[in-house]
Structures are given as structure tokens and as C-alpha cells.
TrEMBL record:
This is Chitin-binding protein. CDD domains: LPMO_AA10. Pfam families: LPMO_10 (PF03067). Residues 29-204 form the Chitin-binding type-4 domain. It comes from Lactococcus cremoris subsp. cremoris TIFN6. Keywords: Signal.
């Protein structure tokens, strides 16, 4: 009986240590809150759709959007091609690759414009930080295949001083003028005192502020002129009125 009681106490002690380590690990994470990263959007949809419907779309991330963690060093290292959106399963903290499913219509998109945009992080408890770096899909990227690093280009870097990230929540990032329509922004948060980083993909619909206004071709002008001549010609009292 004494041995059994001792064994139970040891097991309980180990379990409490394990829970403490797990809780501390999860709390010291974060995600892009605005515009909402794909994983965080899953949590928002979970609140609106319920567990089953949201889980069928997003997978396990709906309860843990802050844990999309993988080795740092992107793009030279980090998550493998085709596993970037899920951060390769988040070091087991997510445990699936549902976020890597990719079609032009699968994910909710946030409308943004070319030029300066603000990206805001939510830290459940901030790590010491080296930098944040932001990437965006190139023009002509394949919207219907899992994301690859060759389809991304660097669009901004925010360096930090190695201290916790509490004073660096929002970053102003420039969206290139040649982007329009559906694109993905990849936000990477490099931790200073571990070998890991956090990877958040953000689905956006880009409104290109520099798009040219619609220009009517000669055929359109010709049709309009013919219509005006026909409508305003009076055969009894010959008179031509051209409306421009």
C-alpha cells in the first residue's frame, strides 16, 4: 500500500510538471490578429459556426492559433514547401496540415490596398524577439496548390532589440503596386532565445489603387455615335443634333 501511494504521488508530481511546461510553452506564443491570419480566422469562425463546422474547414488550429511554430531561418530553412501555412504542423502543437490545403476559394480573405498596410500581432505572452519578416506571393502564383517558398518574395523586415515583443505590436508593411486580387502574406516572427519562429499566412484580396480607369475602345465610341445620330435625326425638319 505504501509503495502504491508513493507511486501515485510520483506520477502526480510528474503530471503537474508536464502540465506546467505545456502551459508555459503554449502561453508564450502569438498570431497576427489584424488582418486575421488563417489560423486566427479559424478561431473566429469556431465562435460563429461551432466546433464541428469550423474544425472541418481549419482543423486543430481553431483552438490553438498561437502555436504555428517551426524552426527559424526562413526562407533558407523553416517549414518545407507545401507545409508553410501549417508551420509543418506546429512542432506537434497543431498536429495536422489542414491549413496547407489551398484553392482560390477555400479561405476567407481580408480586403487591403496596395501601399502601406498595418499588421498587428496578438501575443499570448511575448518572447524575446530578433525580428519579424513579411513575404508575399508573386504575381501569377498558383492559387490552387500548397504554398512554396519560390512563390514568395520579401516585402518587409522589422528588426527588434532582443527584448520581449510587448512594445512592438503593429508593423507598417508596403504592399507592392503590381499586386491585385487574391494573394497570401506570410508573416514570420523570429524568437531570440530559441531556435524557432512563428509562421502566419494571411489571405488577402488586394485592391490595386493604381489600376487604370476603364477606357472605351473605338468600337464603343462608334456605337454610341450611331445611336445618337439615329435618335436625334428629324426627317420632317432635317436637323442633326449630336450629343456628346
Amino acid at each position: 500500500m505504501k509503495k502504491l501511494l508513493t507511486g501515485l504521488l510520483v506520477t502526480a508530481g510528474l503530471l503537474s510538471v508536464s502540465l506546467f511546461i505545456k502551459t508555459d510553452s503554449v502561453s508564450a506564443h502569438g498570431y497576427v490578429q489584424s488582418p486575421p491570419a488563417r489560423g486566427y480566422q479559424g478561431q473566429l469562425d469556431y465562435q460563429n459556426l461551432g466546433w464541428t463546422d469550423a474544425f472541418n474547414i481549419y482543423g486543430n488550429v481553431i483552438s490553438n492559433p498561437q502555436s504555428l511554430e517551426a524552426p527559424k531561418g526562413f526562407p533558407e530553412s523553416g517549414p518545407a514547401d507545401g507545409r508553410i501555412a501549417s508551420a509543418n504542423g506546429g512542432l506537434g502543437q497543431i498536429g495536422d496540415f489542414v491549413l496547407d490545403n489551398q484553392t482560390s476559394s477555400r479561405w476567407k480573405k481580408t480586403s487591403i490596398s496596395t501601399g502601406s498596410n498595418i499588421f498587428t500581432w496578438k501575443y499570448t505572452a511575448p518572447h524575446k524577439t530578433t525580428k519579424w519578416h513579411y513575404y508575399m506571393t508573386k504575381t501569377g502564383w498558383d492559387q490552387n496548390a500548397p504554398l512554396k517558398r519560390s512563390e514568395l518574395e520579401l516585402i518587409g523586415t522589422i528588426n527588434h532589440d532582443g527584448f520581449p515583443a510587448t512594445n512592438n505590436l503593429s508593423h507598417t508593411i508596403n504592399i507592392p503596386n503590381d499586386r491585385s486580387g487574391y494573394h497570401i502574406v506570410l508573416a514570420v516572427w523570429d524568437v531570440a532565445d530559441t531556435s524557432n519562429a512563428f509562421y502566419n499566412v494571411i489571405d488577402v484580396n488586394v485592391n490595386n489603387k493604381n489600376s487604370s480607369p476603364q477606357v472605351f475602345g473605338p468600337s464603343c465610341k462608334q456605337k454610341k455615335s450611331e445611336h445618337a445620330l439615329t435618335f436625334y435625326f428629324d426627317f420632317i425638319r432635317p436637323k442633326l443634333i449630336l450629343k456628346r
